[in-house]
Specification:
Order of helices and strands: HHHHHHHHHHHHHHHH
Largest sheet: none
Number of helices: 16
Length: about 450
């Protein structure tokens, strides 16, 4: 169903899109580091909250993309278009609700999750949270539109929109931080403006696109229960999975926040840097939704298995290359963040440990599950991920980092244990092949 040329046309823009997406977080952290470790820590803490909400929205977007891909594979273009409109409706409604909750509960949410943190860190976190919360509805609409364009194999649209969003964000950072000296507020404002513009662009393109996701009028956004149920059959388990996963990470971040500002800053910088190493795996995971979804929709399970194996090979090759590069450049890159000697040393240790482990099991943990989700096997990935997060990552983090006194390094060791269990569970499921019988349509 897909030639090598088709796969390249799909994957290469996805890699660039992921590079752009990761660059935003990296640039935000780098630029705000000018304002000191308290600012870096405040932004990092709120990013953990935002990532929880973003992951839930992304999971729902994935549900819509899976449904569209399977309808496209079955050649049912009318239902693909209806699914696109319903996904926009779901995403805009939920993201607006999340915005309202975040604005009203700003201080309470930060205090509840992170407990007692240093005053300057709290102030930075509160300002950043207020402004970025306003951007959630626009981010939700953008994620929905981007996922839909990817589902039909047109990943250039999402890449180009992401490029525009990144340019606006980086220019905004430079203007608000270096010219107007706005610090954390400047970083947040740049993020808000970039997300508003990207949402406007992606919706405009959906009205103009001559494709299987074209929106013809506002009536396409009116609720259609039958299609919503199909989207939610994938989106809800995936959303619950991502939500519980991020809540677990928040619990771990709360533990990290007790280790002091240096540990928080080191953890933040290491997370920002290591995200670059995950770019190939994340890009291939997105390609899985399109390729596997269309194969399952076309009733070709053997093709789905074959492409799943081929894409996993590409993911491993990419992860190996990026982690080698990251190990080589780690010292000068971490040096850009103006951290204290203690935070710099800790950050480098985290990055080196990550590189060693990721090349073996990261793709199995996070790329392969998208093959299962694309076929409709979202409940299995949800159960495995939730169990592994709480039993292994959270439990091991508190044991190693807290009880045994390994600090933030112990927290990352707990993360690696979680990866190991997930890898084994998803590999067994993939090889047995039962996931190919879980079609949504």
């Amino acid at each position: 169903m897909f030639t090598s040329k088709d796969l390249k046309r799909l994957i290469i823009p996805l890699i660039f899109e992921q590079l752009l997406a990761v660059s935003v977080g990296f640039v935000d952290t780098f630029m705000v580091s000018i304002a000191g470790e308290a600012a870096v820590s405040g932004v990092a803490l709120v990013d953990n909250i935002s990532n929880l909400l973003i992951q839930i929205l992304s999971a729902l977007a994935t549900g819509g993309a899976v449904v569209c891909s399977q309808y496209l594979g079955s050649k049912n273009i009318d239902m693909s278009k209806k699914s696109a409109g319903q996904l926009i409706f779901i995403m805009s409604t939920l993201s607006a609700l999340l915005m309202v909750i975040s604005l009203i509960g700003n201080h309470g949410i930060i205090n509840f999750i992170f407990g007692k943190i240093e005053r300057d860190v709290f102030e930075s976190a509160s300002i950043y949270f207020y402004i970025t919360a306003v951007s959630y509805p626009f981010l939700g609409v953008y994620n929905a539109g981007a996922a839909l364009f990817r589902s039909i194999g047109n990943s250039k649209i999402s890449m180009n929109t992401s490029l525009i969003m990144n340019i606006i964000n980086i220019c905004g950072n430079a203007l608000f931080i270096f010219v107007f000296n706005m610090g954390v507020a400047g970083v947040a404002l740049a993020t808000l403006i970039s997300r508003i513009i990207s949402a406007i662009i992606i919706i405009s393109l959906m009205f103009k696109a001559e494709s299987a996701i074209r929106i013809k009028s506002g009536r396409d956004f009116l609720p259609c229960p039958s299609i919503i149920r199909k989207i939610l059959s994938i989106g809800l388990p995936s959303g619950l999975e991502n939500g519980m996963f991020q809540i677990g990470k928040l619990s771990v971040s709360s533990l990290v926040s007790t280790f002091g500002t240096a540990a928080i800053a080191a953890n933040s910088v290491a997370n920002s840097v290591t995200m670059f190493a995950n770019i190939p795996g994340n890009a291939i995971g997105m390609a899985m939704i399109t390729v596997i979804g269309q194969c399952i929709g076309a009733k070709k399970p053997d093709e789905a298995k074959r492409y799943g194996k081929k894409l996993m090979f590409i993911a491993y090759a990419g992860i190996l290359a990026t982690n080698i590069i990251m190990t080589i450049v780690a010292v000068p890159v971490v040096g850009l963040f103006h951290l204290s000697p203690e935070a710099t040393k800790t950050g480098l240790s985290l990055i080196h440990c990550f590189s060693l482990v990721a090349i073996f099991i990261w793709p199995l943990s996070f790329t392969m599950p998208n093959a299962l989700r694309a076929a409709g096997d979202a409940k299995y990935t949800m159960m495995v991920s939730i169990f592994s997060m709480w039993a292994f990552r959270v439990g091991s983090s508190y044991l190693l980092g807290g009880t045994l006194g390994l600090g933030v390094l112990g927290v990352w060791f707990g993360m690696f244990i979680d990866w190991g269990f997930r890898s084994l569970a998803f590999l067994i499921r993939f090889l047995r092949g039962k996931w190919t019988q879980k079609a949504v349509i």
